[in-house]
Amino acid sequence: MTRGVNEKNPIVLGLGCDRGTPEETINIAIVQALAAAHCGLQDVVAAASIDKKSDETGLLAVCEHHCWPIVFYSAAQLAKVEVPNPSATVMKYVGTPSVSEAAAILYARGSMTDLIVEKQKQQGSDGKNATVSICRIKE
After folding, report:
1. pTM of this prediction?
2. CATH class of the domain comprising 11-136
3. 32 vs 124: CA distance, rounded Å
């Protein structure tokens, strides 16, 4: 689901991915999510994910390339955030029902009503998945 954004409001990307997801797949997912939000790369002020991805080379490379700071949250922190699209599969593998939506909401200090793009999934040619959510940052 996509909601309109006021271009004056900064946004954060919530990012999730399979282990070993290439930078290219993550980039494609980000560009598609930004297009759905009618935003550009210049509107992004940060990225957020789960601490289990703090060594994920594709994720780190994307953030470094765009000069975005990335914040990592524990599964326990993410699990406390109410999200519109919880996943039993994500819960099984990382201990929280949401990574991208919850991380974006947590960074933005908002709620799920502040999401302007709910999680969007992109599968690369190698079968690896990346998810992106976009949240308006509370001032």
Report:
1. 0.92
2. alpha beta
3. 13
Among candidate residues 138, 139, 134, 131, the one with its CA nearest the CA of residue 38: 134
Report whether 117 contacts 132 (CB < 8 A): yes
Q: At what angle do helices 23-36 and 57-66 cross, to 10 degrees?
A: 60
- On whether the CB atoms of residues 105 and 112 are closer than 8 A, the answer is yes
pLDDT 10s digits, 30-80:
999 999 999 999 999 999 999 999 999 999 999 999 999 999 999 999 999
Q: Both tokens of residue 11?
A: 């946004």
Q: In the numeric block, which tokens belong to residue 20?
A: 């070993």
CA dist 102 → 7, 45, 59, 107, 134 (Å): 22, 17, 17, 9, 10
Report yes or no: 137 and 41 within 8 Å, Cβ to Cβ. no
Strand pairing partners for 49?
A: 72
CA distance linking residue 139 with residue 136, whole number of Å: 9
* Annotated domain spans of the chain: 11-136
